[in-house]
């Protein structure tokens, strides 16, 4: 066994002459354990929230979305769409026309996002998460229907069972050179039958109304223009590979975004929050680890004669330093292992039983989501090692400077 580790382990296990050194060591261990456990739990919660956000967005957004690099719409032809459908890995292509419009229901009005989609929109596994109630249909050509976000529906006080009250949609026409005093010539209008509500995430719930593509094309006068194309990838195919193939086919005039890139700002914010929380808790852990510094300093004072004997026997300064560095490492490692195990157990219990509730009755999930990532354990362990080295170095250096002649 390594001599410095053997002596450090004996110091760690043995009862100190001064009881407060033992108390300081115990406090140091508990502080590291609590700080490590907090890091594991908080990092796992952020991982769970990130996965939840991805899952909710994926139930509304397409796996891949094609948009114009410049402008909000682009021209399409059937041959061009067929070339996209023929790309290896593309299963379903949905045409999209999306723009703001005014909605009126029984005198209640709101400006929301009209999203006109082709008939295969619901074939892409939409609304797999969250809540959905009503008919999964967009009506017929003669009676087009709408699927509304819960926030839009509640604001308009829509009653899905009342088939006699239509949802009116108004969209301003492009201004013409000839002036008119007839208000009806300034906007286009249409009627939809409210068919269903969906509730996924507030960003979607409060903004979107899903309608048939033909209805949106006629109301908005888009013709052969589309604002986006949404693509579902074949089962088993790599989304990244299909994305690269589409980029190669479409060139720089179009953007091909996966689910994360469609909401890159929000996901980046979550990652930044996770980083800052990690740094904050690591700083708190560093403060708690100052007890290691004090306990090692007291131990160095208590063991002056032992150190002097070792030096008299020919022990170099490096060996003395390593004894106290490893003593600090044992204290921190013991606390870190306890903290990692406790943090892991808390996360497992939360995953299985959802003990800590969100406290929101209308939330998509009832309890805080957690996801254990082993990379977090690695970063937490590295943080504990770094803090331990910083806290232990000074006492180890002081111990190595003991005057052998004076102490003996």
From TrEMBL:
Its main location: membrane. Keywords: Cell membrane, Membrane, Transmembrane, Transmembrane helix. It is a multi-pass membrane protein. The keyword Metal-binding does not apply. InterPro entries: ABC3_permease_C, Lipoprotein-release_system, MacB_PCD. The chain crosses the membrane at residues 20-46, 275-301, 328-351, 371-391. It comes from the Bacteria. Residues 280-400 form the ABC3 transporter permease C-terminal domain. PANTHER family: LIPOPROTEIN-RELEASING SYSTEM TRANSMEMBRANE PROTEIN LOLE. Belongs to the ABC-4 integral membrane protein family. LolC/E subfamily. This is ABC transporter permease. The lineage of its organism: Bacteria, Pseudomonadati, Bacteroidota, Cytophagia, Cytophagales.
